[in-house]
Amino acid sequence: MSTKITNNFTTELWNHTNNVFLKRSDLYKYTTTATTTTMNITRSFSSTCHNSKSDSSSSATSTTTNIRTSSNQVAYWLIGTSGLVFGIVILGGLTRLTESGLSITEWKPVTGSLPPLSQEEWEEEFRKYKSSPEFQQLNSHINLDEFKFIFFMEWIHRLWGRAIGLVFVIPAIYFAARKRTSPHVNKRLFYLCSLLGLQGFVGWWMVKSGLDQEQLNERKSKPTVSQYRLTTHLGTAFILYLGMLWTGLDILKENKWLKNPEKCIELFKKLDSSKLGPLRKMSIFLLGLSFITAMSGGMVAGLDAGLIYNTWPKMGENWFPSKRELMDPNFTRRDDQKDLWWRNLLENPITVQLVHRTFATLAFCAVLYVHMYAIKKKPLIPRNSQMTLHALMGVVTLQAFLGITTILFTVPIHLASTHQAGALALVTVSLMFMNQLRKPRMQIKNVINSSMAARLKHQANGNVGKRIVTETFNLVK
Ligand code: HEM
């Protein structure tokens, strides 16, 4: 008899709790472990209680023994470091805009950390610069003091890069050794570290292209860096920045969910809904498009293509330059002109500017479309994503405005630099939008569900337990 009562009690309790606090389907939908035994639930719940008392930011162990999350400190460090990457991108842009990037003619990763310290050392550095194509062809008029300015611009850029290396690598090792990072995040940190190392090499590879007269002859270019290499350097910096930010945001988001599992139920329901699928795909598309638009901007910057056609929306007198200008045979390097198209698309400043204008227009229209779509589907969309999308609409409008003024005023340094910061802001908000719409990882769903089930059981014990016991006894009687 007593076994029968216990069995009935457990089943009834489970049913009642599900009906009282959550529709059963809601709970089961989020988990594959909804059949957790009472023992597991209890273990998971006591662990949740323990965690909610302690500061989750200092604990890498999450609500159950099944998952290890990274601490919030790791997230703050990653987001802070991504801020340093943001800063170095802007500084890199200023270095280019002040034409300082080719002032240091060597790459000494360690000894180069110190600038020249005596008059002789400055003279020696200036002597090396004097033998560079940039000095000989463009800057032969500058004196030592002017050289010191461009030298410092580039030196600070390189020093900042080294500092990012240290600020990233040392804490990464520390956090991993202290088990403050989950295996999932460790993998990402490894990739980010490798990318950071690569970024240094790409930087030097880019500078080399502006110092080597042979390469300049091949490109028939004045002494500037190759637009391909500049854009690669810009692209890897963007990826590094986005990778750090994404990982940091992910950690904060998951820790927040684990701390307040009951607050996730509504959100998870929306994120899991198939009706959100199209918007999720659109968010990926928007990030991709913002990134490609930014890279096409890098090509404009690399070719100084903003110094021509300083009108908007028309390009000169017409909406589009003539076909002859856009597909200029002077840019081909083959007799059969088979490379006419791609060389013009990537090397002809007029065509490259038109490409950037086209991508920018597409990006603006795409955000506008998604914004309108989201307004129509408002009830389906989590509230934080709605807010982010409004911000995205604002940022893309501002960015287009900055691009237009940069063109109209023939690329003044302050506008060009703000436009570059705007591009970073645009990819940041696009990334946040995409991140907020991502479905939670299965492991996280499982943990949240276990802890929800445990809470339900706990509440049920207190609130409805008595009633069910009475009902169960009545049934048995
Ligand atoms: C809406 C999205 C846009 C994005 C994401 C974007 C992004 C960028 C980026 C990343 C650069 C490279 C900056 C650098 O490395 O210094 C750039 C350069 C440039 N963009 Fe845009 N841009 C957008 C719209 C526009 C528009 C609408 C125009 C003008 C019609 C424009 C004109 C320019 C010009 C002239 C440059 C070269 C500036 C320089 O030489 O430093 N952009 N853009």
TrEMBL record:
A GO molecular function held by the record: oxidoreductase activity, acting on NAD(P)H, heme protein as acceptor
Localization, UniProt: Membrane
Record's keyword terms, sorted: Heme biosynthesis, Iron, Membrane, Metal-binding, Oxidoreductase, Transmembrane, Transmembrane helix
Pathway in which this enzyme or protein is active: Porphyrin-containing compound metabolism; heme A biosynthesis; heme A from heme O: step 1/1
Keyword Transmembrane helix: yes
CC terms in the record's Gene Ontology section: mitochondrial inner membrane
Taxonomy, superkingdom: Eukaryota
Transmembrane segment boundaries: 74-94, 159-177, 189-207, 227-249, 284-309, 354-375, 387-411, 417-435
Gene Ontology terms describing biological process: heme A biosynthetic process
Pfam families attached to this UniProt entry: COX15-CtaA
Signal peptide: none
Membrane topology summary: Multi-pass membrane protein
Major localisation: membrane
InterPro entries: COX15/CtaA_fam, HemeA_Synthase_type2
Catalytic activity: Fe(II)-heme o + 2 A + H2O = Fe(II)-heme a + 2 AH2
Protein's UniProt keywords contain Metal-binding: yes
Cofactors: heme b
Protein known as: Cytochrome c oxidase assembly protein COX15
Organism: Arxiozyma heterogenica
